[in-house]
Amino acid sequence: MKVFNFNAGPAMIPQAVMEKAQKEFCDYKGSGCGIMEHSHRHKLFDEILERAISNMREIMGIPDTHAVVFIQGGASMQFAMIPMNLAVAGKPMEFADTGTWSSKAIKEAKLFGDVKVIASSKEEKYTRIPAVDEMKIDEDAAFFHITSNNTIYGTQYQAFPNCPANVPMLADMSSDIMSRKLDVSKFGMIYGGAQKNLGPSGMAVVIIRKDLAERTPANVPTMLRYSTYIDNNSLFNTPPTFGIYIFGLITDWVKDMGGLEVLEGINNKKAETLYAAIDGSDGYYRNPVCPCSRSKMNVVFRLPSEELEAKFIEEAKAAGMIGLKGHRSVGGIRASIYNAMPLEGIERLVSFMQDFKKNN
Amino acid sequence: MKVFNFNAGPAMIPQAVMEKAQKEFCDYKGSGCGIMEHSHRHKLFDEILERAISNMREIMGIPDTHAVVFIQGGASMQFAMIPMNLAVAGKPMEFADTGTWSSKAIKEAKLFGDVKVIASSKEEKYTRIPAVDEMKIDEDAAFFHITSNNTIYGTQYQAFPNCPANVPMLADMSSDIMSRKLDVSKFGMIYGGAQKNLGPSGMAVVIIRKDLAERTPANVPTMLRYSTYIDNNSLFNTPPTFGIYIFGLITDWVKDMGGLEVLEGINNKKAETLYAAIDGSDGYYRNPVCPCSRSKMNVVFRLPSEELEAKFIEEAKAAGMIGLKGHRSVGGIRASIYNAMPLEGIERLVSFMQDFKKNN
Q: Which of A27, A307, B78, B132 has the highest count of CB atoms within 10 angstroms of its CB?
C-alpha cells in the first residue's frame, strides 16, 4: 500500500522526483558519480543551479529586481539575518505576530534594534490572521514582516497588507511558498525553509530585492550578508548541492504539472475536500481556526477527546497515513498537505475520517 | 569503467554508502517514505542521529567533555561563529596562517576583536606548515586557531602545537577530519565542513568542549550560539536530515573498515604511493610542498608546462579519473584522496602518470 505522509516538514516529496533522484543517485548523467559527489564548480552542477533558479523565476513570476539565493540554516537563520542586514538605525522593525514562528522572528530582531508588533492574534490563541485593515504599518518602519502561513495553528493570509511605498514587506513563506499565485514585486523579501514545498531540509530559498542588500552594516560577517549570496550566485562557499538538485527537480515537476495555476487549483480542491469533511462531521471533528484564515497547507482539527486523537493517529498509520500528529505545543491532529500531496491522499484521509467517526 | 573522483569537495563517498542510500532512497526501513521525507522528530531519524553521534564518538575517541553537533553553513559559517561565541574582551584571538582557509577565518575574527597571527607561511607561498616550536601562543589568548590540512596548498600538520593550559586550541579539520588518530581532548573545538570525509555538502560537524559554549555573549542570535545546538542535540530547528543520514552511513562504513587505525594505514599507503610516483619521476612531476608538511589528503603537483597539465587532466578524464584540476587560485594538478578513495584509485592514477610521462 502506498503510504501518504502528512508530516509538517520535512515532508512528502513528489513521487516522480523521488524516483528520478533514486535512479540517478550513483551515476548522474553517465558521469560515473552521484551529483552529491560532484564539485559545486562542475558544469553539471552549474546547469542544475541555473535551471533551478530560472524555473523558480518562471513559476513564481519573479522580477529582475529580485535575486533568488540559497542560504543554509533554514528559516530560523533568516530570523537573525533579517535584522542583521535590514535593520535601520532609528527606524522600528515592524511585525505581525501570528504564532510561534512570528514570535521567534520577533525575538531575534529585538537583539538588533527597536521592534514594534503592529498586529497580533496572540490573545485569540492565534486562531486567525489579523485583518489587513487592522495592520497599521508606520511609514518610517525599517521593514514589515509577516508569516504567511502558520504550520502549528493552521492559519494563512488570504490577502496581503499594503505596505507604505518605502517599507519593504518581508514574508516567511516556509510553509506555503510556491503553492499559490502572488505578486512577488510587492515583497522586499520572500523566504522559506525548503523542507515543505521545496525539497529536503538544510537550506532556505530566499527571494530578495537586490537593493535591500546594500543596507547591511560593514561589521556583519561574510556568511551572514545577503550580498555574499547575491554577488556569488550562492557559490561563495560550497552550497548544499544535493538539496539544490532536489529543489531543481521539484521545480521541473511543478512546470510539468502545468505551473502554479494548475497546482493552486489542486491545492484549493484538496483543502476544500478536507475542510468539508471536518465541517460535515456534526462537530465530531472541529477545526479551531476562524474560517477567514484557514490554511490550505496545514489543516488542524480536534476530536472529541485526546484518547480518540491518539487512536485516530494510530489507526491512520495502519491505513497508510503517517505524520498526522499535531505539533507538540498544541496537540490534536494536523494534516500537512503541501504541493506534493496528491488529491488521492486527501480522499483516503477523508474516507478514513468518516469510518473512524462511525466506529468511535 | 569505474570512475574515480579526485574532487576536493564535494567529494567521493564510499561506494557501499552510495549503494545503500540508493536502495532505501524511496522507502526507508519499510516506512513507505524516504528518510528525506520523514520528520526530524520521528523515531527513525532519532535513531540515525544517535547512532551517527555515538559512532563518531567511538571512532575518534571523543571524551564526554565534548559535544558533537551539526551546524549548517559549512566551515565558512564557523569562521564567523567562532569569534562571535569565543572571543573574550581584552584577550587576543590567535591564529596560525597556513593558507586561504586560515586567512578567511582570520578575516571574520577581525570583526569581533583583536587578532594576532602568531605563525605564518605566507612568505613561503604556504608551501609548509610552520614548525610547532615556531608557534608562540600567548598565555592570555582567547583561543588559538589552526587549519589542520590545507586543501589548496596540499599541506598538513604532522604534529599539533601544545597550547598553554588555559588557551583552547580550535582546529578547522574540514579536509582531514576522521582520517587519522588524534587526541581530541587536546582541542577546545574540532570542526569540518562535511563534504570531504563526512558526507554531502550543507553542514559542518562540530566537536566542541561544552564549557566553551558558556562564553557566548547574550546578544548573539539563537542560531549562531553553540549552546543552541548542544542543549537541543542539534534539533533546535530542522537539521539537514539527509546529510546526517549519509554521515551516519559513513561512520558505519568506517567501523566496518576496522576503524581509524586501519583507515589511517590505508591513507598512509595511498599517500606514500602517490608521492613516490611524483618523487620517482625525475622531476617530470613536482610537488612544491616541503616534505615535512605534505598532506595525505590533497596531493598537489605540477607538470613541465601548463599545456601538459591541461592535457593530463583531459586524458585522465578519458581514463576514468575526474576532479584532478588544481584550485583555480594556484593551478596545477590536485588529487584529493580522502577516506573514500580506495588504493585502487591511486594505483590507476600512478599507472596513468607513468604512461603519460612516457608519451609526453
A: B78
